[in-house]
Design brief:
43% helix; six-stranded antiparallel beta sheet; 831 residues; single chain; flat
Length: 831
């Protein structure tokens, strides 16, 4: 009785005959294709075992066709075949256009198709037309490693519902086919491995051996026996025979290693020991083996290999000694040293690096060592290193490195490649020398030379450097000029011409004739300075010169001073000093006279102020008595006249006070009581004094409160005096209907300055012309008599206000536009 039919898969999108994009990627998977080639079945003839499985599947499942396929990247191989028509049964290969199995491989799951002509996944496949594929059941062949090699499938020429039992049966047969293929793969790999192993062992002089634990016998292959000094013959030895080959000092350790293999969990042995040949030669060998058990018993055999490692051990010893010596040298030199791998990553720093930088071995990873470099030098270091690695060339650069105390010092670094025998770069070795002191000295030397040359070039005197020219016996035969300033051609030659590069005999033959070359030779050889005043006429003018010769290295510096010019200059200097002293005396006398005049003026102004204030106060007092009716009734006309008298008296008194205040400022007798006060407190104190006048003129007076928290260092009385003057002027010169606003704001401090507070008085008055802005702060100046005719005054208010502001470490400035108004800004130090 058959099992119920299996439900057909849900409809999938229609696809072309070739695999879809995802399926193609699965078929082209490199790991799958590598597993497929490892089977060794791609280009072999038909496989009898797989053919038998195919015939069995066809009979059991009553299917006309059964196939075992291997699906390559571009073809399908029929390794097992039953019922396939010609020519396919002989070619045993189809293109992927005729492969339904590719979909089972790509999906890695059974593919069940009732009618391929209707199935959206395969209805365009050419196998329907050419191979009469209608019903299809395919199971992917999945290896134990998970690779999908192909498919075990059965095909019917008519529609068919595949049952669950049929699918399960075919899955069992597919598993058998997979096992068969994996067995072939393993046999092929084993054969190839054995062949390669034999060649490799012979090429590597690797000998085989075995040790039968129960019998106490050792079998040595020919190479193994030869390595133990017993000739190139295969031989069976006792344990004593084997021990006799070993160096006496290594017998206990070697025996213990073999015994440990019998009790270890993995049964492995690895030992190195020395063997002594009959001629006394001592060689090192390395033995490696594995404990195996024969049959079901516990009788064990250790099998393994042995190899001569004498050269390696000698090389290791030399390498250890070399590394020890190299490390000792690297630690001893006064350098920061390091090693990088071929890609530039750091593998070693010497102790001096760690001591200087404060880093530890955790900074070896990545590029953390770059944290030691100055930030401005890191990009240069990185780019220079990358270019050198790409080109395989050494490189040098100077950069700054941070010391443990945070100080950066200059280092000269050189990094060179370490090459293998074939020339390839295997590492990079670098060292850095502290050149900070040298750079500083070089800079100072360059600066000193520049100063020397600048001084010499600017000097009217002659300055010449000459280097000794020596003959084969080392004697000075001549001097060559290496430097000459402009004064040298003016002083020593009849016309300007180049001197550098010429010899003394060429440039100054008359001096050679006069014996100067011999004198300069003695200066160089003895180091004694020579000086003499000479009479010189080569330039066409007779002049007295003072010549001084001083040894400089292997040469001499010649300084020539024109004494006549110096004498004239000294006389002129004395004349100028006398004139300066006379001018200073005149200035001192003028200062004393000005101070005396100021004192007289101050005394005059004070006396005048007192003498004028006394009658003015009396006028004001008597006017008030008359106004109060002390002397009888007063008519309205008389009251109006008294009011004019009082206003005139107050106005004149104010003018006198302003003159007196200015006199005090001029005399420097004003003192300041600086306190910390709120800005708005100053404004609130004077606001009631100007508010009535503002209201009378129909002005809007506004005090903004945004600066309520601001405080200043100022003299309260003098600050109120300045603000009152500014507000009075603003009200006075603002036409009816206008506005006056007061606001305070902080002013950021400038470089090296203290924070300030700005108190601004803004009005909508007539404004001040640009050409008049610089004059309004001058004393006794009233800008535009036409504008001020109705507002009489002395012209001292702004001059006094600015002097008071500056006396409190502040200032008073103005910004104005004709027709738009003015803004006066009082700046005072912030508290």
């Amino acid at each position: 009785m058959s099992s119920p039919p299996v439900e057909r898969p849900a409809a999938a999108p229609a696809l072309a005959a070739g695999p879809p994009t995802g399926a193609a990627a699965a078929l082209d998977d490199p790991a799958r294709l590598a597993a497929l080639r490892a089977t060794g079945l791609l280009d072999t003839r038909a496989d009898a075992a797989l053919d038998r499985l195919s015939r069995l599947a066809a009979r059991v499942l009553h299917a006309p066709v059964a196939l075992v396929t291997l699906v390559d990247a571009d073809r399908q191989l029929l390794k097992g075949c039953a019922g396939l028509p010609a020519p396919w049964d002989s070619t045993r290969e189809t293109p992927l256009s005729h492969s339904v199995c590719q979909h089972a491989v790509a999906r890695r799951e059974p593919l069940v198709v009732r009618d391929a002509r209707e199935h959206p996944l395969v209805r365009d496949n050419l196998a329907i037309r050419d191979l009469d594929v209608v019903a299809y059941l395919g199971i992917p062949l999945l290896t134990s490693e998970g690779a999908a090699l192909g498919s075990f499938c059965v095909i019917d020429h008519r529609p068919r519902d595949w049952t669950a039992d049929e699918i399960a049966l075919l899955e069992d047969l597919a598993a058998s086919a997979t096992t068969e293929i994996e067995l072939r793969t393993a046999e092929r790999a084993a054969a190839e491995s054995a062949a390669r192993l034999g060649v490799a062992m012979e090429a590597a002089r690797l000998g085989a051996w075995s040790f039968h634990l129960a019998r106490g016998r050792c079998w040595h292959a020919a190479t193994t026996n030869e390595l133990h000094g017993r000739g190139h013959v295969e031989e069976l030895l006792t344990v004593d025979d084997w021990l006799h080959c070993l160096h006496p000092d290594d017998r206990v350790a070697a025996t213990s290693a073999f015994q440990a293999a019998t009790s270890s969990a993995d049964g492995r042995i690895a030992a190195e020991y020395r063997v002594v040949w009959p001629d006394g030669t001592v060689r090192w060998v390395a033995a490696a083996g594995q404990l195996v058990h024969q049959g079901a018993g516990t009788e064990g055999i250790i099998v393994g290999t042995v190899q001569d490692v004498t050269d390696r051990r000698s090389a290791e010893t030399r390498l250890r000694n070399s590394e020890r010596d190299l490390r000792s040298f690297v630690e001893a030199v006064p350098l920061l040293a390091w090693l990088n791998s071929a890609d530039g990553s750091t593998t070693f720093f010497n102790r001096r690096w760690y001591d200087y930088s404060g880093q530890d071995e955790s900074h070896l990873s990545g590029t953390r060592w770059m944290e030691v470099l100055h930030p401005d030098d890191r990009q240069l270091a990185r780019e220079t290193r990358d270019r050198a690695i790409a080109a395989g060339r050494p490189y040098e650069l100077e950069l700054r490195m941070r010391r443990t105390d945070g100080v950066y010092r200059w280092f000269a670094a050189r990094v060179a490649p370490v090459r293998a025998a074939d020339g390839s770069v295997v590492a990079w070795a670098g060292a850095a020398l502290d050149v900070d002191d040298r750079r500083r000295l070089d800079a100072e030397l360059r600066e000193s030379e520049a100063r020397f040359r600048a001084v010499q070039d600017a000097s009217p005197d002659a300055s010449v450097l000459m280097r000794a020219l020596r003959d084969e016996e080392g004697r000075i035969s001549d001097l060559v000029i290496t430097y000459a300033n402009d004064g040298a051609s003016r002083t020593l030659l009849s016309r300007p011409e180049p001197l550098v590069g010429r010899t003394m005999r060429e440039a100054f033959p008359e001096s050679v004739d006069a014996g100067r070359l011999e004198i300069y030779r003695r200066v160089i050889e003895t180091g004694e300075t020579w000086q003499q005043d000479v009479h010189y006429t080569r330039t066409g003018l007779a002049r007295g010169l003072r010549v001084t010769a001083v040894k400089v290295g292997d040469g001499v510096h010649i300084g020539v001073v024109d004494l006549s010019e110096r004498l004239r200059a000294a006389e002129e200097r004395e004349r100028l000093l006398a004139a300066a002293e006379a001018a200073r005396a005149d200035a001192e006398r003028a200062r004393r006279e000005a101070e005396a005049a100021n004192a007289v003026k101050a005394q005059f102004l004070a006396t005048m102020s007192h003498e004028l204030r006394t009658p003015l106060n009396a006028i004001g007092g008597y006017a008030q008595l008359i106004e109060l009716g002390v002397h009888g009734p007063v008519t309205p006309a008389q009251l109006e006249a008294l009011g004019r008298i009082q206003r005139s008296q107050q106005h004149l008194l104010g003018l006198i006070n302003e003159v007196l205040n200015y006199a005090k400022l001029e005399a420097g007798t004003v003192t300041y009581d600086l306190q910390e006060i709120p800005v708005l407190e100053i404004v609130r104190a004077v606001e009631p004094l100007v508010a009535p006048q503002a209201r009378a003129q129909g002005l809007t007076l506004t005090v903004e409160g945004s600066g309520a928290a601001l405080r200043v260092h100022a003299d309260p009385e003098k600050a109120r005096q300045v603000v009152l003057n500014l507000l009075s002027n603003a009200v006075k010169f603002t036409p009816p209907g206008g506005s006056v606003a007061v606001r305070a704001e902080p002013v950021p401090a400038g470089p090296g300055g203290a924070p300030m507070v700005a108190l601004r008085v803004e009005d909508t008055g007539r404004g001040i012309a640009p050409e008049q802005l610089d004059r309004i702060f001058q004393p006794f100046v009233q800008v535009g008599r036409r504008l001020t005719a109705e507002h009489e005054g002395t012209g001292l208010g702004l001059a006094i206000s600015r002097d008071l502001a500056r006396g409190m470490a502040g200032d008073l400035t103005v910004e104005s536009e004709v027709g738009a108004g003015s803004t006066f800004t009082l700046r005072l130090p912030g508290a």
